[in-house]
């Protein structure tokens, strides 16, 4: 089957055409980073207006680039949530209009299921598996007992990892999104400023990053007040090492406790070099197969939405045309029923 997928949950407009849940015929991504950079973060009103400006043309281009015709499409998939409501709405309306006009099924898709199933576009998933989801809005450990069935065993109690990265980067005067800058700085640093690790309760799979972020901000303020030069690299490295150690330790504990056959890394922060390296090393020494999508499929894109939508296609679990965008959509609730 051919699924045309649309993703507009945040600040990337993306349209993809996917065959059989696996083969990417095209995956167009238009990022708004340049627009939001001058505001230091995503401005929701501007994001939705830009989606409106690009979506129609991008759908036309995607179909053309994929070398298919609209009549050949089997279904239209769209990110239903979670995300910014104004941004989601643009994709949802475009997808509904197309599904109605072509008289084919609509598949409202979960954004985080998309991040997880980005792995399916390049790897074979084996169940049960555990996914470590690290993105701008989420930090979660998810168990997949079977295909398309999600159980969240841990989540952040405050900031998401990507959010913490962006706030730290902003305090270090890097432009939005700052995650990659902190990653680079940490990788180049020779010194490290030791920062605390938030383990929480011994048996908990939850995360907390706001204390760590506050420790970084406090160190920056202190240096400013005393007129000292701050070793940005050492601070970035201390921050990154704290984040990575907690993520890697909890993820591996979950893999063993759940008898998982694979660990999947996904979400925008999966692009972090330090995290990829540390996770790969731990997985190798503990003989856990690690799946990581290529960089282009870590950040927001519609191909991953098409891959997740394929699960619902297989069960003919389609979405009514009167569905609404869901800014806080439940991942577990989106699981396939069977
Ligand atoms: P969500 O998927 O939770 O709805 P989102 O879609 O906004 O949130 P993504 O696009 O998946 O988030 O990821 C973007 C985040 O990833 C940003 O916070 C960005 O700083 C972070 N990020 C990207 N590359 C890196 C990196 N190399 N190191 C750390 N963080 C990074
Ligand atoms: Mg984004
Ligand atoms: Fe995302």
Biggest sheet, strands in spatial order? Answer: 3-2-1-4-5
- Helices and strands, in N-to-C order? EEEHHEHEHEEEHHHHEHEHH
Helix content: 40-55%
Q: What is the general shape?
A: globular
How many strands in all? 10
| N- and C-termini, Cα separation | 21 Å
**Roughly how many Å is the radius of gyration?**
20 Å
- Average pLDDT taken over every residue: 96
Name every ligand kind in the structure: adenosine-5'-triphosphate, magnesium ion, fe (iii) ion
Number of helices: 11
Strand content: 15-25%
User: Which class of secondary structure composition applies to the elements?
Assistant: alpha/beta
Largest sheet: 5 strands, mixed
Poorly predicted ranges (pLDDT <50, ≥5 residues)? none
Key words describing this protein structure:
globular; binds adenosine-5'-triphosphate; 338 residues; binds magnesium ion
Short description:
The chain is of the alpha/beta class and 338 residues long. 43% of the residues lie in helices and 17% in strands.
Describe what you observe in this structure.
The protein has 338 residues and is an alpha/beta fold. 43% of the residues lie in helices and 17% in strands. The chain is built from eleven helices and ten strands. Helix 3 links the parallel strand 4 and strand 5. Helix 2 runs parallel beside helix 3 and helix 6 packs across helix 8. It starts with a strand and ends in a 24-residue tail after the last helix. The chain binds adenosine-5'-triphosphate, magnesium ion (MG) and fe (iii) ion. The site of adenosine-5'-triphosphate (ATP) has 24 residues, from helix 4, helix 5 and helix 6.
């Amino acid at each position: 089957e051919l699924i045309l997928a649309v993703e507009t949950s945040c600040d990337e407009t993306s349209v993809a055409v996917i065959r059989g849940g696996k083969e990417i015929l095209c995956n167009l991504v238009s990022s708004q980073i340049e627009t939001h950079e001058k505001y230091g973060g995503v401005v929701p009103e501007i994001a939705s207006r830009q989606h409106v400006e690009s979506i129609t043309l991008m759908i036309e281009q995607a179909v053309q680039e994929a070398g298919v015709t609209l009549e050949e499409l089997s279904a239209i998939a769209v990110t239903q949530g979670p995300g910014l409501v104004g941004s989601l709405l643009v994709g949802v309306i475009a997808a509904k209009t197309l599904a109605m006009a072509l008289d084919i099924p609509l598949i409202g898709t979960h954004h985080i299921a998309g991040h997880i199933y980005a792995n399916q576009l390049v790897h074979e998933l084996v169940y049960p598996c555990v996914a470590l989801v690290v993105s701008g809005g989420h930090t979660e450990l998810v168990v997949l007992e079977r295909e398309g069935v999600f159980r969240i065993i841990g989540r952040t109690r405050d900031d998401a990892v990507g959010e913490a990265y962006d706030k730290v980067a902003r305090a270090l005067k890097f432009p939005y999104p700052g995650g990659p800058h902190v990653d680079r700085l940490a990788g180049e640093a020779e010194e490290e400023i030791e920062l605390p690790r938030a383990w929480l309760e011994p048996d908990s799979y939850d995360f907390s990053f706001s204390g760590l972020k506050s420790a970084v901000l406090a160190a920056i303020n202190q240096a400013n007040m005393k007129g000292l030069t701050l070793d940005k690299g050492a601070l970035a490295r201390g921050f990154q090492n704290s984040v990575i150690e907690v993520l890697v330790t909890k993820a591996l504990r979950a893999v063993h406790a759940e008898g998982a056959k694979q660990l999947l890394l996904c979400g925008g922060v999966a692009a972090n070099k330090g995290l990829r390296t540390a996770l790969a090393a731990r997985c190798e020494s503990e003989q856990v197969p690690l799946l990581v999508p290529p960089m282009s499929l870590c950040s927001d894109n519609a191909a991953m939405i098409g891959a997740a939508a394929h699960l619902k296609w297989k069960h003919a679990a389609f979405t009514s045309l009167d569905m609404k965008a869901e800014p806080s959509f439940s991942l577990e609730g989106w699981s396939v029923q069977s």
